[in-house]
UniProtKB/TrEMBL annotation:
It comes from the Bacteria. It catalyses: nicotinate beta-D-ribonucleotide + CO2 + diphosphate = quinolinate + 5-phospho-alpha-D-ribose 1-diphosphate + 2 H(+). Pfam families: QRPTase_C, QRPTase_N. Keywords: Glycosyltransferase, Pyridine nucleotide biosynthesis, Transferase. The keyword Transferase applies. Its EC number is 2.4.2.19. Pathway: Cofactor biosynthesis; NAD(+) biosynthesis; nicotinate D-ribonucleotide from quinolinate: step 1/1. This is nicotinate-nucleotide diphosphorylase (carboxylating). PANTHER family: NICOTINATE-NUCLEOTIDE PYROPHOSPHORYLASE [CARBOXYLATING]. Residues 129-299 form the Quinolinate phosphoribosyl transferase C-terminal domain. The keyword Transport does not apply. Involved in the catabolism of quinolinic acid (QA). InterPro entries: Aldolase_TIM, NadC, NadC/ModD, Nicotinate_pribotase-like_C, Quinolinate_PRibosylTase_N_sf, Quinolinate_PRibosylTrfase_C, Quinolinate_PRibosylTrfase_N. It comes from Arthrobacter ginsengisoli.
Amino acid sequence: MTAPAAARPSALPVAELAGTLPAAAVDAVLRAALLEDAPYGDITSQTLIPADARATAVLAARVPGVFSGGEVFAAAMKLTDAGADVELLVADGAAFAAGTPLARVRGNARAVLLAERVALNLVQRMSAIATKTAEFAALVHGTGARITDTRKTTPGLRVLERYAVRCGGGANHRFSLSDAVLAKDNHLAVLTGGDASRLTAVLQDARARLGHTTHFEVEVDSMEQIEPVLAAGVDTIMLDNFSLPELAAGVALVAGRARVEASGNVNLATVAGIAATGVDVISIGGLTHSVAALDLGLDIELEPVPAPDQTAH
């Protein structure tokens, strides 16, 4: 993996990232994950670890990357031990080298061990997404193209995964089906019954029934669809699986009448060329649906027991 520290463009400032991950959503994810992982408690720790034992654990990077999920790590530890002391050593959105300590927690040993796997699973995934997004963002830096995610997220984890995309310098597409209109090929097939001559009319009718603040985007898969879609007054036109020459021709044809989004066949080898065609947005499902967890570890050390006072009588 290419270390992002050298090439990564500036993402959102830390001040802007702070507080953008809803605490209630984080709590809901963590409670569900802990219920799954320890439905009747952690019998290993309850059997082996004294109830009053204390521990210090350091979240450490085994590989370079971009950090995301500090709040999640802290919340996981505090959910199992409200009195835990969590110190975040690296800010979300910051690049780090292998071996970097990312966070430190001090608390009840059983509680730290109970939260360990849930915290690691989530932070490893979030940091992997941030790292992958940063690699894409670096490759289009200076072109004006925006890297965005899609709805191809892990069920139940969308709020965390999309936050991780922002940590990596990307932006978010519509959060859900309720947020914006995005008419894709299957919608258009149903609407037009295969009659391409009806495309403008059916889209205009749909547009007329929308509120004035609702964004309207339409996906096209051929050059011939661009003008009929633009004639309906859409906000964004998605050019799906277009070749580079087709993308450039599509951007020229749109000529600023709508925002142009490119989708399909986007990877680290193709994204720079796609951005160079002049598109405004490049959406990439792979930011969230196919990343491998970043190698982070939690190194736990029990606090030493004080030696008996030999001078006591």
